[in-house]
Amino acid sequence: MIAIMCAMREELEPILKEIEVKEVIEYARNKYYLAKFNNLDLVLAYSKIGKVNAATTASVLIEKFGAKKILFSGVAGAIDADLKIGDLIIATKTTQHDVDLTVFGYEPGFIPESKVFFECDENLNQIAKKVSKKLNIKLKEGIIASGDQFIHSKEKKEWIAKTFNASAIEMEGGAVGCVTWTLGVPFFMLRSISDTAQEGAGVDFDEFLEESSRVSAKFLIAMLDEMVGG
Ligand code: ADE
To answer: Is the CB of 72 inside a 6 Å radius of any atom of ligand 1?
Structure first.
């Protein structure tokens, strides 16, 4: 069973359009879509925004639905200047930029007995790179930082860039990274840029959420095609 996860309805809808949904299961105040993509058994869900919702959905996907991998698709705010609206990025690692125990001498993002960065799956990232070459689509890779805040300030964005060496920002990947690391499940995360996370980002996000979601969804479907046999 492979899980496909998003945060928002707008991110999941373009994926659902491309697959054959067999059953919808309501569980824990959410909907889980069981589907087949060629010979792949899929379970799909959007978590709702934020790290707590993302952690809950990721845990349910693994523990209740038996997901052996989680593939995330959605949008993100750009940190790196070379990322433009609609560009794609895959995470090498995810982190939680809003974790702050620095008063106790820990580095930003660190929780005792856990860690700052959660590595994404190298094999899945290789498949993404192969697809990007095949289809001649620009694909960046980098650290993606998450927090329960929509970032719309140059100052905050620069702090996250400098502190975590992050290339993009969103609100779920750090939580899914933590859950998948804890439970030993490979995690892949793809995001298409919806805004530049500085002043005016809210307006751009509203304008580009659907289009950037479609860009990410389309690439994810191409990856599934590659996984079922190239
Ligand atoms: N997701 C998309 N854009 C974002 C931003 N600027 N901050 C947090 N999450 C986002």
So the answer is: no
Catalytic one among 11, 87, 121, 170?
A: 11
Q: Using CA atoms, how far apart are residues 189 and 213, in angstroms rounded to an integer? A: 13
Q: What is the helix (H) or strand (E) element at residue 129, kind and residue range?
A: helix 122-135
**Going by CA atoms, what residue is nearest to atom 9 of ligand 1?**
170
Pairing of strands 30-37, 2-6: unpaired
Per-position pLDDT tens, the chain of length 230: 999 999 999 999 999 999 999 999 999 999 999 999 988 999 999 999 999 999 999 999 999 999 999 999 999 999 999 999 999 999 999 999 999 999 999 999 999 999 999 999 999 999 999 999 999 999 999 999 999 999 999 999 999 999 999 999 999 999 999 999 999 999 999 999 999 999 999 999 999 999 999 999 999 999 999 999 85
Name which of 188, 97, 99 is nearest 150 in CA terms: 97
Is residue 84 within 8 A of residue 194, CB to CB? The reply is no
Q: Is 159 in the pocket of ligand 1 (CB under 6 A)?
A: no
Cβ neighbours for 143, distance < 8 A, ≥ 6 positions apart: 91, 92, 93, 94, 95, 117, 164, 165, 166, 167
What is the residue range of 166's domain?
2-229
Q: 66: how many CB neighbours lie within 10 A of its CB?
A: 11
Q: What is the CATH number of the domain that holds 163?
A: 3.40.50.1580
Number of structural domains, the chain?
1
